[in-house]
Amino acid sequence: MKRIIVIVAAIICSIVMMAQDISQFKVLSDSIFHTNEAYVKGNKYQRDAMLFVDMLADTHPYYIKKERRDELFGRQTELMKACAACGSDSAFVELLIQTLGDLRDKHTDVIDLQQLEAKKKAKQELQDLQPTDTNALMANKGDLFHYQIIAEKGVCYLQFNQCADARTLRDESLPRWDTMLDEMFAKMKEQGIKRLIVDAQYNNGGSSMLCDELLIRLCPLEQLQTLSTSLRFSRLMAAYNPRIAVAKQSWEADGHIDELYPMPSGKVGPDFVQPEVFDGKTIFVQSERTFSSAGILMTLARDNHIGLIVGTNSTFSPSHYGEVLPYRLPNTNVIGTISCKYFARPDKEHLDDKSLMPDVSLDLTDKEKALDTILKQLTINN
What is the pTM of this model? Predict the structure, then answer.
């Protein structure tokens, strides 16, 4: 077991970093299909459909159960028929998306290169049209994060737009999240501020380390319940590093056939010092754009009873699949990413909830009205 832990810990971070660079996406191998008649005689879409289904069955944690894999392979016949009449990469992508079904999210998805470029262009055009400055406190200011103390209302407003900072982006010109938090809470203590708004409505994720650094300032680490994480060993993961194949063989040799590997919880370092815990009232803001690590922040806030959550219903599931492996299909050059981990929330009674419901629903398009509602919530029972 210890050997597996060492191998996995040394590999996962490097694979995730590769997901940011399309040129480093691993091309799925078709070596095991060279003697498959259907593969050899198929068109490029049928060939890549077979590789896609095989990769999906072997990689995604949902398909660790044999009966689910059998059901997936049972649907492959209809997919192959549809691919026989397929006329474009975009149409092929839509067929694969249908195959993914509910598993499709921002971690597991598929796209062709033409669509990818179009999305990048549309995103840039949208950013160019958005105002870079506005007087509304809750408007997106376009930075990673910032805070503002509103002394007359006894409130600190923290806008958390991305789970990233100088450390995670390896850019010393950017601010450090932990340093800013130390400064913010020190000023709040100095000024007697007992109300905190954590606005993550624009945050679609990044490094969960930043969320942890906030949470331990709101709840003592020794009391904080966290997600339990399980990993699916796969050939795709081994393609990024052969040592995964060794770990997979060792895991299965111990009798763990068709079982996810439980990742060990993070250990507290010997130099860890518990920060002073904020003893005021906290409200978290989420929207349909809150996702991934930011969604984990909301989930742990709920399950640890840290403050209230306001905003819209989440587009993420509190227990979810994540940690992406990127890939490229060899015959069409269609690319995609697929989850290799399952994250289970602490609240086991709501383990299968599809969405995280806010304590108070808010229309976040009206920033001033939303802020007024939040301020009123902060005064309740105070």
Answer: 0.85
β-pair partners for 338: 325
Query: Which candidate, 90, 101, 155, 137, places its Cα nearest to that of 368?
Result: 137
Residues 37-79 have pLDDT tens digits of: 999 999 999 999 999 999 999 999 999 999 999 999 999 999 9
What CATH number does residue 143 fall under? 3.90.226.10
Residues of the domain holding 163: 139-266+275-323+340-379
Output DSSP code: residue 29. Answer: P
Last residue of a domain, one of 120, 153, 173: 120
Contact 225, 339 (CB under 8 A): no
Q: CA triplet 299, 303, 306: central angle to 5 degrees?
A: 90
Report the Cα–Cα distance between both ends of the chain, in Å, rounded. Answer: 50
> Which residue spans within 173-267 are E strands per DSSP?
195-199, 228-231, 261-262
Cα–Cα distance, 76 to 189 (Å, whole number): 60
